[in-house]
Amino acid sequence: MALDYYASGAWDEVTLRENRAGFEQIKLRPRMLVDVSQRDLSTQILDQSLPIPILVAPMAFQCLANPEGELATARAAAEVGAIMVLSTMSTKPLEAVALAGKQSQQKQEATSEIKNPSWFQLYVHRDRTLTRRLVERAEAAGFSALCLTVDAPVLGCRERDRRNQFTLPVGMELANLATMTGLEIPKTAGESGLLSYFAQQIDPALTWRDLEWLQSITTLPVLVKGILRGDDALKALDHGAKGIIVSNHGGRQLDSAIASIDALPEVVAAVGNHLPVLIDGGIRRGTDVLKALALGASAVLVGRPVLWGLAVAGVAGVRHVLQLLRDELDIAMALSGCTKVKDIDSSLVKIKD
Ligand code: HOC
């Protein structure tokens, strides 16, 4: 049940596969005879210095992979210098996750430039008081940005979850919400317990005005996650977004939605001069990170590989996955003639017709 929940996409999982296929169709055009003996993978986003242009994507219910759940991911991410985006639907409380990240970061001299190693992903509840309270808690706990998910007015239909009648095992809860609402994912769901919980709690009436509202109740920058079109990116900019995350929710929402990497150029063309544009969906290798940066992304978010690392070996597993990606990006940059992230430009890629 847990593996199916993490691995699955919506309906026929076309978008899930396309996210990978999109990257595979992009070929690299490396530059030769550049002195690449010194390389620097650091970058800047929203006035934050990042040692690597790789973040951990928000993923729900990480205790399904390891008893330490989000605490382990936060520790490993901070050790490697990757910002972790914590899901509203975490199985450890946001305050504890923020603390775990900070404590781990304080031990790491190399990554001490990150002001705060965690961002918070937000679903907006029908009850706005609840959302406001969550935002206040995230701010108080020291999260340094909010990512508003906009591609889930309703939950996508993941048939594997329905077949499994997905629910959280006894003893595991929505750690940020259960204490505030007393509500849990139904333990005896007819289909997927997620579907019923989501339909009951998350507001399908969200509009661009709510983005303005959200930005008005917080001092944190709000990034909009789930954008696949240039015109939507422009609307996000007009309504106060401080960044865009190009995403189709890992293929878990609208099946047949365009692959994230295929949507990236249009979004970058629309707002790339004004806002940082990040991307998730299908990033499995350092060369994928290079391709995304070449097409104008400021950074990438990695999801499922982190969960696989977490499931195999907890903190060590997540650290290993992030280090692999970092080292692969380093090698890919060297082999492409790039010494720093700013050297990675669109001339490095060729998209097959
Ligand atoms: C209880 C509601 O974004 C996913 C996540 C979390 C969904 C919310 C579940 O599974 O895609």
Automatic annotation (TrEMBL):
The active site is at H249. Pfam families: FMN_dh. Residues 1-353 form the FMN hydroxy acid dehydrogenase domain. The keyword Cell inner membrane does not apply. Glyoxylate binds at Y5, Y123, H249, R252. SUPFAM superfamilies: FMN-linked oxidoreductases (SSF51395). Its cofactor is FMN. This is Alpha-hydroxy acid dehydrogenase. CDD domains: alpha_hydroxyacid_oxid_FMN. The keyword Nucleotidyltransferase does not apply. One of its GO terms (molecular function) is FMN binding. InterPro entries: Aldolase_TIM, Alpha-hydoxy_acid_DH_FMN, FMN-dep_DH, FMN_HAD, FMN_hydac_DH_AS. Keywords: Flavoprotein, FMN, Oxidoreductase. It comes from Moorena producens 3L. Belongs to the FMN-dependent alpha-hydroxy acid dehydrogenase family.
